[in-house]
Structure to design on (1537 residues):
């Protein structure tokens, strides 16, 4: 059933009642996953799953499950062989033979393909037919047990194998495997209902080598050795109902640490790292205590496991009772910088344990609630752990991020509601991807989505108070835990799912407040608010005339109507005013409390009650205003541009105690390069009580100001004397003290100051010699022998400082860069970099921070023309086998090189890496970096932009990345950045006139067929991908790569195909195309055994014939009947007449009907492709009679 | 009899072979003795009734006699030392003769035989003086509890410490300067060496030697090198306590350190390296590149264990001398240990 048909009913239901109605005609209660063989050498997995389901409708005869990449050998329902069809339309979104190259078309097709298998719409890749013997059984709504044998060979997604190529057994080599993926990706490694809303209990069994440990969800019931004692089986039981998407697995030779503070918590890490693990996790129990206390709820699972693995997909992945972390988060006690980051990750994962794993979501549009709550309680933890300053700083940072993103890209919609499926209603028409489904989202968008979600949660807190907020959470949790203990009442389990409406209802029940306007503004609408503020002081009336304008016409903005807090600091104190922002009132009069006449020698009270002395000489004698702040509490998602005089910003910086205000004023002061600003900034720098991050940003601001004032600047370079005073020896001011990082605040300042200083420029726009010498001296005299902490980050920052000091080389008529004409300063810098980089080889620093900085610095030198621009060095560092941080830094340099030097070769190298690198994160990251720093953009002329590249990228997102949602979306992002939404301009005009009208998405359908399609098949209109596939036999890419990537046969969904087929027949087609179309269509119809039995290597999946449109819904299509039973021994011919039901007549009828029409084309085709003829010969036969054609394994070659 | 023979042979100087004039007094001395022995042999032959003898047979007999006497002397000395004396007594000789199977009782009768020829004692030649070893200072006399027959003390320079270190430099600036440049030199030398001996990359195509970069080598398990603290850091972690350091103690430590470097740098090249190593460059660095022989960091627990056994202290051990020695041994252990 097409999503369009389903969505409205779901929406109605959501408005109507709070109960959860499953989109599936059955209820899953229990699932067994048994993996009895894992081969690290071959990277393969063999096992079976058993799902226990209760039909909820009487006539259930098909069961749809999710499964990707798995070979399904055999399906049995209650011990009876069952026929099944495996069809994954997302493998290839648009047919490779299509000449279509416009992104609009692709995005629609992709969204359609994803929803065609979306479990939340009741769909799935695997469609199992209930044997007719069981129909009676089903009618009585009795239990069905579905047993599926599957295997997985060299999975490209879902499960990631890390097998280092050293000597020794797998355990000695530290080989491990873990599940990974973005959103619901469990279908990649075992067949399941891959939805967050289908909960069941679990039994998980993994048989692994005796030296390995299998970590999975739930309680470890027992481990049983096999008879030969060489293997053992881990039995896990998860009695709390959990969605398949929250099931995970990690197997490896882990070292095990039972948490000394909480015995139910166990930590796992790779060999050798135990000391680091001990230190890293020693903090975790405090996070537990915090969450349990604020939520007044025990941790819902009986145990918790943390696993630290290499080549992680994401830094933190939370699953039911288990979190998978990147091993790179581990650190020793000597590392300062990583510690807070790692702790944050731990806290984040734990917050998601409560909201995300234990409490799951009803549908994708409810995702924001979970992300919001987990992000919000994580924020509370931050506030408690790192203090209010850090918390407010973080909120500000997140707010800035979301504001920047939305203003740049367009709004982020938290709660998308899709009504009717009409294009006009599309809430995300500004985006180049669909937001209907998590798997179509750009990764960056999803990051921002999470960010916005927790900010909105904070807005709700502002509205209803934290106490109520926590009560709501507690209510959700206690409902869920009651439901989870109902072992035999699976209908109760839906209480463990959270929905937007349910959440809002809880809020109104608990708080009694109406937050509907707030929700409407931030959740149901996208966009942020952009304020422009300015003021005038009316002396006569003693009134502040504040003007606040809004920009709500630019993309990503929205209009704000409602209260807005304004804080005015006057001589007599600080006063809050709540203004009402309305449609047409811009001006607001705020009466002032104090007289402008200054009361000499009187202390000025601040907002926090503190009274301070101020030097008021700078201020305007007529006005009592010290500074004004708009929306100081960040209770609107907004960007404020406020105009006030420089002295007001300076007062704000010096005396306002809120870190956000201080930061805002630092940002504003950049525009006022005056000695007064300079003084204010230096004072802040020296003030120990001031928040260290503020001081750090003051450094950079000071550098900017100094550069603007370069002609009038007196005294030593900015910050130099300050640094000397703070960090150098008393007796010899040019020598820095030996390192002592006991005080973290001064450590961070010490790190940052030289970096900022290096940005100083003299009148010739060069870095002053004095500064460079100073930095070189810092490096020279750096002495860490007596420090308790590692100085690797500090040294890395010193290299960054050196890089910052580099200015473009003075080049005389483009001479070649050689050593001889090297600038002496650069020579010194290069000397340091060489030494550091070489020392790293002998004595590596933590996470190779120094290598990373060195690589960046070398790229800076290259870019500035001091060193010949050459990517060879970076390419060697980007190889697999280097630490991931180094690789990313090197790749970044290569990406930059590609852009600056417009190198086609490097671009190819990068694209090749995107396709072939073993580490998913690196592949994702390259795409990401290419998108951020593109070699060219849409409207740019570039030699790189050619047809081959378009084809290559198209192929990458179309089929090359089908194993990883995130990667595919990344490829889409890149394609969008390079070519935009419409057909890339570098392509020649389409010859056939078929794809001319591309502006509107719907127009890709030939107008002649739309009425027919709508009439005949509802989904056609909704499914632009039902556009004809053009057989791209000349496509150079379709043959080579794709076939290697997917090594299982796919059985095509005949329903979609045939309806599509019919459409095509109605269409006036060009002769050149029609020649091939029938043949390809037919071959797609050949019943193929799905996977597993693929014994002949020549039998490749037929890529080009993959169906774009798989709008299979609940409705029983007569054409379903090309389903075929699969024999237990895959190769044997197996005929089961019983499968052909009463529908079969209908089915045959259809086929015959259009077979006739196509016959003539077929003959032509045969002549042309004689080499194909053997296989094709069979086609008519199989086609006309699917039942008898089961033995033919459709080795139809791709054209 | 040895005595007798010796005294007997003492006469008869300047006989046949005296023609050769030897320059060396020691040689003269020995030649004279030998000649005396020949005289003794000749007279014994005469006694036995020989009229003439070939020179070769006389020489052979002389040689036999000499070895016999030497053997008696050697054995007698052994017996005397066996009984913890330095001077052989008559009884030692007797025991020796008995041991050699000589009937001692026949000796007095033989001495009183009638046809005995009397040989004149050899002329008194000067005992050759052994050249005096260069003495440095006065030999210490034996302390009262050691009997005088025990050997004398060796020359004082062989066992008494010679204080050679300079006044420690205490100027903070100079010290820091020195520490920094020394470390820098070592680092540079080491990296250059590494770059010379291994594969390199260069930023300049035309010149590969000025800024040689050691080639990037992928690891099989990259996270281990990246995450595990280096051994140097481990050591620091153990050593460093959380006490606040002030500039004063800092200076002292540093001064100590530098002075140590200097005092040892003259004599002990190897040691110097270790001292420097403790500045920044640890010996474990060597482990890195001799991975085939020594364990790599992969085997990090063993190294840790080793480190605990042999604390490699650098800056926190006040007595200069001992610290130097201690480090020497421990660093050697570190190199050869694992």
């Amino acid at each position: 059933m097409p999503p369009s048909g389903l969505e409205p009913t779901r929406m109605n239901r959501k408005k109507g009642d709070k109960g959860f109605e499953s989109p599936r005609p059955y209820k899953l209660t229990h699932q067994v996953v048994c993996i009895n063989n894992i081969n690290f050498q071959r990277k393969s997995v063999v096992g079976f799953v058993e799902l226990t389901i209760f039909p909820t409708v009487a006539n259930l005869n098909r069961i749809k499950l999710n499964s990707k990449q798995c070979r399904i050998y055999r399906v049995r329902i209650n011990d009876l062989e069952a026929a099944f069809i495996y069809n994954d339309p997302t493998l290839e979104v648009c047919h490779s033979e299509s000449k279509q190259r416009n992104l609009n078309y692709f995005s629609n097709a992709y969204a359609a393909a994803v929803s065609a298998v979306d479990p939340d719409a009741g769909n799935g890749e695997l469609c199992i037919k209930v044997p007719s013997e069981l129909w009676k059984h089903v009618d009585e709504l009795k239990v069905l047990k579905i047993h599926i044998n599957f295997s997985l060979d060299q999975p490209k997604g879902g499960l990631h194998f890390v097998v280092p190529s050293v000597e020794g057994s797998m355990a000695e080599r530290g080989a491990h495997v873990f599940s990974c993926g973005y959103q619901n990706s469990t279908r990649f490694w075992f067949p399941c209902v891959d939805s967050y809303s289908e909960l069941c209990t679990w039994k998980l069994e993994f048989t692994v080598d005796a030296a390995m440990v299998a970590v999975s969800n739930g309680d470890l019931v027992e481990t049983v050795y096999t008879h030969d004692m060489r293997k053992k089986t881990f039995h896990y039981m998860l009695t709390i109902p959990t969605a398949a998407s929250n099931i995970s697995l990690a197997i490896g030779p882990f070292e095990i640490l039972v948490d000394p503070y909480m015995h139910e918590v166990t930590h796992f890490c790779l060999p050798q790292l135990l000391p680091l693990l001990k230190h890293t996790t020693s903090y975790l129990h405090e996070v537990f205590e915090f969450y349990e206390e604020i939520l007044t709820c025990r941790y819902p699972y009986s145990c918790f496991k943390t696993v630290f693995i290499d080549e992680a997909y994401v830094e933190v992945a939370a699953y039911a009772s288990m979190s998978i972390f990147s091993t790179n988060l581990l650190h020793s006690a000597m590392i300062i910088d990583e510690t807070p980051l790692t702790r944050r990750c731990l806290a984040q994962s734990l917050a998601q344990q409560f909201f995300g794993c234990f409490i799951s979501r009803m549908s994708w549009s409810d995702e924001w609630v979970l992300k919001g709550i987990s992000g919000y309680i994580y924020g509370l933890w931050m506030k408690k752990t790192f203090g209010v300053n850090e918390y407010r700083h973080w909120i500000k940072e997140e707010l800035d991020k979301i504001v920047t993103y939305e203003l740049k890209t367009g709004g982020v919609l938290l709660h998308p509601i899709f009504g009717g499926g009409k294009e006009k209603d599309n809430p995300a028409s500004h985006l180049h991807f669909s937001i209907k489904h998590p798997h179509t989202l750009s990764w960056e968008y999803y990051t921002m989505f999470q960010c916005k979600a927790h900010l909105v949660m904070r807005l709700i807190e502002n509205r209803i108070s934290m106490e109520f907020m926590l009560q709501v959470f507690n209510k959700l949790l206690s409902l869920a835990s009651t439901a989870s203990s109902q072992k035999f009442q699976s209908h109760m389990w839906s209480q463990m799912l959270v929905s937007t409406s349910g959440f809002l209802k809880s809020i109104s029940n608990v708080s009694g407040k109406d937050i509907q306007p707030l929700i409407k503004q931030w959740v149901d609408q996208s966009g942020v608010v952009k304020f422009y503020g300015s003021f005038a002081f009316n002396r006569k009336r003693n009134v502040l005339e504040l003007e606040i304008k809004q920009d709500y016409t630019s993309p990503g903005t929205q209009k704000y109507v409602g209260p807005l807090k304004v804080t005015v600091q006057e001589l007599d104190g600080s006063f809050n005013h709540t203004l009402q922002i309305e449609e047409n009132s811009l001006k607001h009069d705020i009466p002032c409390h104090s007289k402008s006449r200054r009361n000499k020698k009187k202390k000025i009270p601040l907002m926090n009650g503190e009274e301070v002395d101020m030097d008021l000489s700078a201020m305007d004698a007529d006005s009592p205003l010290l500074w004004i702040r708009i929306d100081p509490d960040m209770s609107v998602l907004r960007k404020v541009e406020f105009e006030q005089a420089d002295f007001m910003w300076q007062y704000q910086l010096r005396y306002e105690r809120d870190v956000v205000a201080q930061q805002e004023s630092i940002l504003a002061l950049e525009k006022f390069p005056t000695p007064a600003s300079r003084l204010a900034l230096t004072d802040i720098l020296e003030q120990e009580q001031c928040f260290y991050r503020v001081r750090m940003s003051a450094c950079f601001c000071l550098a900017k100001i100094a550069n603007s004032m370069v002609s009038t600047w007196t005294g030593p370079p900015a910050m130099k004397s300050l640094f000397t005073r703070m960090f150098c020896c008393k007796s010899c001011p040019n020598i820095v003290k030996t390192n002592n990082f006991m005080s973290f605040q001064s450590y961070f300042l010490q790190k940052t100051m030289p970096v900022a200083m290096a940005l100083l420029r003299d009148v010739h726009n060069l870095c002053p010699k004095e500064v460079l010498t100073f930095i070189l001296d810092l490096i020279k005299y750096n002495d860490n022998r007596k420090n308790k902490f590692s100085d690797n980050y500090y040294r890395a920052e010193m290299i960054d400082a050196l890089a910052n000091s580099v200015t473009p080389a003075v080049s005389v008529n483009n001479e070649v860069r050689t050593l001889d004409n090297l600038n002496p300063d650069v020579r010194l810098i290069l000397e340091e970099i060489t030494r550091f980089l070489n020392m790293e080889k002998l004595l590596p620093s933590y996470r190779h921070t120094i290598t990373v900085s060195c690589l960046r610095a070398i790229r800076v030198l290259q870019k500035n023309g001091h060193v010949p621009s050459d990517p060879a060095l970076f390419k060697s560092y980007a190889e697999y086998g280097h630490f991931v941080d180094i690789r990313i830094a090197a790749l970044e340099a290569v990406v930059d090189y590609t852009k600056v030097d417009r190198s086609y070769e490097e671009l190819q190298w990068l694209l090749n890496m995107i396709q072939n690198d073993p580490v998913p994160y690196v592949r994702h990251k390259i795409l990401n970096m290419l998108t951020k720093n593109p070699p060219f953009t849409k409207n740019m002329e570039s030699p790189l932009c050619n047809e081959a590249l378009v084809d290559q990228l198209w192929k990458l997102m179309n089929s090359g990345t089908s194993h990883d949602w995130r990667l595919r979306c990344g490829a889409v992002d890149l394609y969008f950045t390079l070519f935009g939404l419409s057909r890339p301009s570098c392509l020649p005009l389409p010859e056939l006139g078929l794809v001319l009208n591309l502006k509107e998405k719907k127009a890709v359908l030939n107008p002649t067929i739309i009425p027919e399609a709508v009439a005949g098949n509802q989904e056609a209109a909704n499914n632009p991908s039902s556009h004809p596939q053009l057989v791209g036999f000349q496509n150079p890419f379709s043959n080579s790569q794709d076939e290697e990537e997917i090594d299982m046969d796919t059985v095509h969904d005949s329903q979609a195909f045939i309806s599509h087929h019919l459409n095509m027949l109605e269409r006036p087609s060009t002769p050149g195309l029609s020649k091939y179309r029938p043949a390809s269509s037919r071959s797609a119809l050949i019943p193929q055994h799905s996977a597993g039995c693929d014994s002949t290597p020549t039998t490749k999946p037929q890529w080009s014939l993959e169906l774009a449109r798989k709008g299979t819904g609940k409705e029983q299509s007569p054409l379903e009947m090309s389903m075929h039973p699969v024999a237990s021994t895959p190769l044997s011919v197996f005929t089961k007449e019983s499968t052909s039901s009463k529908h079969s007549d209908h089915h045959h009828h259809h086929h015959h009907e259009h077979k006739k029409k196509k016959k003539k084309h077929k003959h032509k085709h045969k002549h042309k492709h004689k080499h194909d003829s053997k296989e094709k010969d069979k086609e008519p036969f199989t086609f006309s009679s699917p039942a008898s054609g089961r033995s033919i394994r459709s080795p139809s070659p791709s054209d | 009899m040895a005595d007798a023979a010796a005294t007997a042979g003492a006469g008869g100087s300047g006989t046949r072979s005296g023609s050769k004039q030897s320059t060396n007094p020691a040689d003269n001395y020995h030649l004279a003795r030998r000649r005396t022995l020949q005289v003794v042999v000749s007279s014994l032959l005469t006694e036995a009734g020989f009229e003439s003898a070939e020179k070769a047979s006389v020489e052979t007999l002389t040689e036999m006699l000499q070895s016999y006497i030497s053997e008696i002397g050697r054995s007698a000395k052994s017996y005397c030392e066996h009984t913890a004396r330095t001077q052989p007594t008559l009884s030692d000789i007797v025991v020796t003769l008995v041991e050699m199977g000589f009937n001692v009782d026949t000796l007095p009768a033989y001495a009183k035989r009638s046809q005995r020829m009397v040989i004149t004692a050899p002329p008194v030649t000067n005992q050759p003086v052994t050249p005096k070893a260069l003495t440095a200072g006065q030999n210490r006399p034996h302390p009262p509890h050691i009997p005088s027959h025990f050997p004398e003390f060796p020359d004082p320079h062989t066992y008494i410490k010679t204080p050679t270190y300079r006044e420690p430099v205490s100027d903070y600036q100079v010290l820091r300067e020195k520490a920094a440049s020394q470390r820098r030199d070592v680092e540079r030398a080491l990296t250059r060496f590494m770059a010379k001996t291994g594969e390199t990359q260069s930023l300049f195509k035309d010149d590969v030697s000025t800024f040689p970069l050691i080639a990037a080598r992928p690891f099989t398990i990259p996270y281990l090198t990246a995450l595990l603290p280096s051994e140097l850091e481990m050591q620091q972690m153990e050593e460093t306590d959380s006490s606040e350091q002030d500039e004063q103690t800092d200076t002292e430590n540093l001064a100590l350190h530098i002075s140590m470097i200097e005092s040892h740098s003259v004599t002990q090249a190897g040691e110097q390296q270790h001292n420097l190593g403790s500045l920044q460059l640890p010996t474990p660095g060597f482990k890195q590149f001799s991975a085939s022989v020594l364990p790599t960091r992969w085997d990090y627990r063993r190294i840790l264990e080793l480190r605990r056994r042999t604390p490699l202290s650098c800056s926190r051990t006040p007595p200069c001398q001992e610290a130097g020695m201690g480090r020497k041994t421990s660093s050697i252990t570190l190199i050869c240990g694992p």
Q: What stands out?
A: Residues 1144-1168 of chain A form the longest helix (25 residues).
